[in-house]
């Protein structure tokens, strides 16, 4: 049952990966405990914001001496569903598709890339990161035989809607869309539209602010 | 002078590119006016949030019958500094660097890519999107002769800190970092650390929520 009163705001959800990454860094440095104040300083979020965020998930029981880093890392990973072994396919094996296929962080976060598809005869059959590129024509057949949770779309803008619909029809439950368009599906299909020019625009804003502040 | 009382929260700044993109879409559809309610529905942000966000910049004078789309688009573009013609270089001409160099949205947003650098002899001298890849050894010389506002870093993680420092030393005021690390500079150098696995983790969360909600 979906308890709507407990719905976590999008802005909090978007902060979870950042907490997760940062806690992973602490673990690597063999840091066992961290206070919300220390976490706050490092992450540039107020300590009360952190406590508020964590309260959506039960608070993770901070005692007087801080959070247990390993426990918190594991809990947030669980909340993010990173222990579920979600499988992915990449559709579109151009430069961006190739870059993402070789992005070892995806695997480190628990995602399993199990297929890469393209419609270019020159690319089909070549290997990227040990995976052979398959013809887009075989997409439905592949999806019938293999459970795929997430489709990563790096096809040209003109092809994205059709590709997305083919994936969804075959049961794919999440789409990561890099095609500079806004995909929207019914709420049973999750979509993240990634706009690579957004951080560039944010940067432009900050540079302008810095100039004006001089 | 930097008026700290007027500092716009990061979360509002991050929404500006979205507003800008969305208004651009409206313009393409030849829509001249939009109410904050209609904008709110399309963007999945409350109308009061939109008014609050816009109030940081003087409110853009919504009358009873809505915002003037073209005016609002132009104003937000101005605030984002997109009319300043910021110049960029890409350091690291692997798959991701190549994908970004061919990303026509960057140019559409007003950014001018004027140089691409790599240290691989096999890549130096090849052309990407009409721009010849130069040797990383020539970076300082190039930056002395050309004003570069933003450095886009698509080098391996191990090389990112050194590369960033070289750029900053030569006067680059903004860094877009794709190297799965958190770069931090003094506040006169703006940094956007782009973590491509963050939207994938958010997606995983949403898929899990959808499953639990069934």
Structure description:
Two copies of one chain form a homodimer. Chain A is of the alpha/beta class. The first copy, chain A, is built from nine helices and nine strands.
Main features:
globular, homodimer, alpha/beta
SSE topology:
The structure is a homodimer of 214-residue chains.
Chain A: H1 10-28, E1 33-34, H2 36-43, H3 47-55, E2 67-68, H4 69-79, E3 87-91, H5 95-101, H6 104-108, E4 112-118, E5 127-128, E6 131-135, H7 139-145, E7 150-153, H8 157-169, E8 174-177, E9 190-193, H9 197-213
Parallel strand pairs in A: 3-4, 3-7, 4-6, 7-8, 8-9
Antiparallel strand pairs in A: 1-2, 5-6
Helix pairs in contact in A: 1-4, 2-3
Q: Cα-atom Rg of chain A, whole angstroms?
A: 20 Å
Q: What is the element string of chain A, with H for helices and E for strands?
A: HEHHEHEHHEEEHEHEEH
**Fraction in beta strands of chain A:** 15-25%
Largest interface: A-B, 69 and 70 residues
Mean pLDDT across residues of chain A:
91
Strand order of the largest sheet of chain A: 5-6-4-3-7-8-9
The count of β-strands of chain A is 9
Q: Could you give the distance between the termini of chain A? A: 54 Å
